[in-house]
Amino acid sequence: MANNIQAIRGMHDVLPEQTPLWQYAEQQLRGVLGTYGYSEIRLPIVEKTELFKRSIGEVTDIVEKEMYTFDDRNGDSLTLRPEGTAGCLRACLEHGLLHNQVHRLWYYGPMYRHERPQKGRYRQFIQLGVETYGMEGPDIDAELILIMDRLWKKLGIRNKVRLQLNSLGTIAERLVYRETLVSYFQQNLDKLDDDSLRRLGTNPLRILDTKNPAMQDVVANAPELMAFLGEDSLKHFNTLTATLNDLEISYEVNSRLVRGLDYYSKTVFEWVTDELGSQGTVCAGGRYDSLIEQLGGKPNFAVGFAMGMERLLALLETADNVPVARSVDVYMIRVGEIAEREGLRFAETIRNVAPGLKLQVNCGGGSFKSQFKKADKSGAEYALILGDDEVSRGEVSIKSLRDGQEQQTLSQAQTIKFLQGLA
Ligand code: ATP
Ligand code: MG
To answer: Which of 254, 281, 316 is the last residue of a domain?
Structure first.
């Protein structure tokens, strides 16, 4: 017997019973982004490999070992996007959107990374990305934080996340720090694991990000980047924290927050949770002014963040009272030849006058009993029952499926009024 073909490891289906929660979250985040005047941008899922190598950095986890890269039929090296920042900036540069302009953009869609799949870590995952261009001051950094603060509140999970904040300074400031950090780690080589020894020569700041419990001490005693920041970087950071204080948004300064990607400078932040085990970062971002020049643009400003939707959904599943819409409100049962014909017509009339109502008509026949079972299974709140007798009298029976209320028989006009009241 042939084996059934299965999905690729780490790439998941979202089944119909899960989609209402996704749609709820998507609707809320579109709403929140709308209230801040952000516009959606839609971008290709595949880009030239060079784009990611040049923007994300050669010695990052993503470029070193996580990209889905392949040669297409022309022999060009292409990559399934591992993140959206590079593609979004590529598009804006290509279409001249960065010249003397300010932009506030968002995108939503799948990203691909060849990681070891585990809870909260997949090979295809969905991100909401938000990117802004052309704004230098920390007020836009604060705005991005406000957006997420509002979204957490809307979703009823504000108490489940904490904001962590750091400044990475400028590239020049980071270079000086890097030397100090490397010499500190060289004095503590015996305390480093293999991964960190490898990073010491390539991306030593990432060592600070280690999850290895045995290394927490050596990392905690490392010199702090904050002490190496110049006046301008410090002012940016202090203005941001003062703004957050003003707005009563609490944060923790985490001097070991370095982010995985090379392109950040000044502000970096993460929204973390304790509810999801080791995959606790739900949303992460920061300022990446220098990436614009790195990709061939004129000096400019950029700040953004990305949120992992699977982690957000996992967090929502731990919350109480998440209002999730039913996919069917009303289920129509038709028994008899006349009822079958008249039912379809009547259902269209209902949809015309109660467009908010989710009305499912039983198709494929069946006895009253079997249709009634399907009505119950659909999750609908009411069943509409049409038999030939009812139809000949111009009537409809309505039965509540969720409480013990008596079945009632109404005229078609009364039925429509009743259903309009539900929608
Ligand atoms: P991590 O440290 O967890 O690997 P990261 O720094 O690689 O995260 P980013 O590139 O900043 O993650 O992506 C932003 C967000 O996207 C993360 O905070 C997370 O919520 C989500 N994310 C990243 N990689 C994955 C993945 N493989 N599966 C699911 N979500 C992911
Ligand atoms: Mg990662």
So the answer is: 316
In terms of residue numbers, what domain contains 402?
A: 330-422
Q: How far is the CA of 61 from the centre of ligand 2 (A)?
A: 7
Residues of the chain with pLDDT under 70: 1, 260
For residues 368 and 257, membership in a common domain is answered with no
Do 309 and 336 belong together in one domain?
A: no
- Residue 353 belongs to domain with CATH number: 3.40.50.800
**Same structural domain for residues 373 and 266?**
no
Cβ < 6 A, ligand 1 pocket:
83, 113, 115, 120-122, 125, 127, 260, 279, 281-284, 306, 308, 310-311
Q: How many domains does the chain have?
A: 2
381 touches 334 (CB < 8 A)? no
From 56, 276, 281, 283, the mutation candidate for ligand 1 (largest count of ligand atoms within 8 A of CB) is: 281
311 lies in the same domain as 334 = no
Q: How far is the CA of 66 from the centre of ligand 2 (A)?
A: 9
At 1 the pLDDT is 59
Q: What is the pLDDT of residues 400-420, one digit of tens each?
A: 999 888 899 999 999 999 999
Whether 281 is covered by a domain: the verdict is yes
pTM summary value: 0.92
